[in-house]
Write a structure and sequence with these properties.
This is Histidinol-phosphatase. It comes from candidate division LCP-89 bacterium B3_LCP. GO terms for molecular function: 5'-3' DNA exonuclease activity; 5'-3' RNA exonuclease activity. By secondary structure, this protein is an alpha+beta fold. The chain folds into two domains: 5-255, Alpha-Beta Barrel (TIM Barrel); 265-348, Immunoglobulin-like (Sandwich), CATH 2.60.40. It contains eight helices and 22 strands. It has helices at 24-33, 48-51, 93-102, 143-149, 156-161, 172-184, 213-216, 235-248; strands spanning 5-13, 38-44, 56-58, 61-69, 78-81, 106-109, 137-142, 188-192, 199-203, 206-209, 220-226, 251-255, 265-270, 276-278, 282-283, 289-294, 301-306, 309-314, 318-322, 327-335, 338-343, 346-348. The longest helix has 14 residues, at 235-248. Bound molecules: zinc ion (ZN) (2 copies). One zinc ion binds next to loops.
Length: 350
């Protein structure tokens, strides 16, 4: 097994620069307390915190700053990282997605299939621009969306008190869409916390903060696997390295509330040449691979999927399986009945 350096962080965070309630320093402190090693902020429409020089290491935690865009109907949310210039509102999602990529940025579709049946006062903001071929990643799991989706007038007090209990699983629809996209091109899967610590008036005149940052930072995490650990002391190099590794898809999503996912690994080895491939890698159709997993102790079982179909089931700490032709291969691990870990895929192209 290739030695990799694992860093754990949270993605998709709002602050007082848009509609979040937290101040940067406090949010960073909360993330540090939760044991996180990087944070990606994305306030609506603004890059002001980046322009103020807030990117880089803050007491050991690496901070990257992008922004979140949307269309005139409030839909098609896109996280834009690694851009320096703000994008003006009023253009359609096809255009702003293209623009982000042209500017050298990393375009991430946010909460693609948000649904909200129970509470009409909070409409859903799904992604509908699937004809775009420019976005490079998508959220496969979003804490806030799922929390809101499960909210009904009957359970809202319970969910308010138990915010992490609402995060159960990404939707089937999202996962299948993600697999389908990956047959054609690399679309990296991310888990977003979408932390706002909103002050909603959840029942009559009571204003309450919906799951504070502290809580959000103990749910959906991104685990990124580096060849070399990003070094403190060179902010720009470390950020470039973080985004490069994320863009490659060398990362997995895990729910910290369910267990400790550190140490999870999914990789493949060429049958002929013993070459090692990592999550995010794409190979030509003739390739024959042996897939391998290492499962941390909190995992009770894991499955290997090919094009959304389960093809192998593992219960032990280590497992392997020989590829069966072209397809999008990825791993889902569970702890008892709870969704826990979602790897990025290794793809044998059609
Ligand atoms: Zn959004
Ligand atoms: Zn957001």
């Amino acid at each position: 097994m290739q030695r990799l350096y694992e860093k754990v962080g949270a993605v998709h965070i709002h602050t007082v620069f848009s509609d979040g309630s937290g101040h940067y320093d406090q949010v960073i402190q909360d993330a540090t307390d939760a044991g996180l090693e990087f944070l990606l902020f994305s306030d609506h429409w603004t890059l002001k915190p980046k322009q103020q020089g807030r990117e880089g290491f803050h007491n050991g935690i690496l901070v990257g700053i992008g922004c979140e865009l949307n269309d005139s109907k409030g839909r098609n949310h896109l996280l834009a990282f690694q851009i320096d210039e703000e994008i003006k509102a009023g253009i359609d999602p096809l255009e702003y997605t293209k623009k982000v990529v042209e500017m050298g940025g990393w375009a991430v579709v946010a909460h693609p299939d948000e649904r909200r049946d129970a509470l009409p006062e909070f409409p859903a903001y799904p992604w509908t621009t699937w004809d775009s071929e420019d976005f490079q990643a998508m959220e496969i799991w979003n804490h806030l969306s799922e929390w809101m989706e499960r909210l009904t007038n009957r359970n809202k007090y319970w969910l308010y008190i138990n915010p992490r209990r609402s995060v159960i699983t990404p939707t089937e629809w999202t996962l299948k869409t993600w697999d389908r996209l990956n047959l054609k091109r690399r679309v990296v899967g991310l888990g977003g916390v979408d932390a706002h610590a909103h002050h909603y008036s959840i029942w009559r005149n009571v204003n309450a903060s919906i799951f504070p940052y502290k809580i959000a930072f103990r749910s959906i995490h991104m685990h990124v696997l580096f060849d070399e650990p990003p070094e403190e002391g060179n902010d720009d190099a470390a950020l470039t390295q973080l985004f490069q590794t994320l863009r490659q898809g060398r990362a997995f999503v895990a729910n910290r509330y369910v267990g400790q996912a550190r140490g999870f690994r999914f990789w493949a080895e060429g049958v002929e040449d013993s070459k090692i491939y990592q999550m995010g890698d794409r190979l030509p159709a003739v390739s024959q691979l042996t897939f391998h997993v290492n499962l941390p102790p909190d995992v009770t079982h894991a499955v290997l999927l090919k094009d959304s179909q389960q093809i192998c089931h593992w219960k032990d700490a280590e497992g392997s399986f020989r590829s069966i032709g072209s397809g999008v291969y990825r791993v889902e691990a569970r702890r008892r009945r709870r969704a826990f870990i979602f790897s990025n895929p290794i793809v044998i192209e059609p």
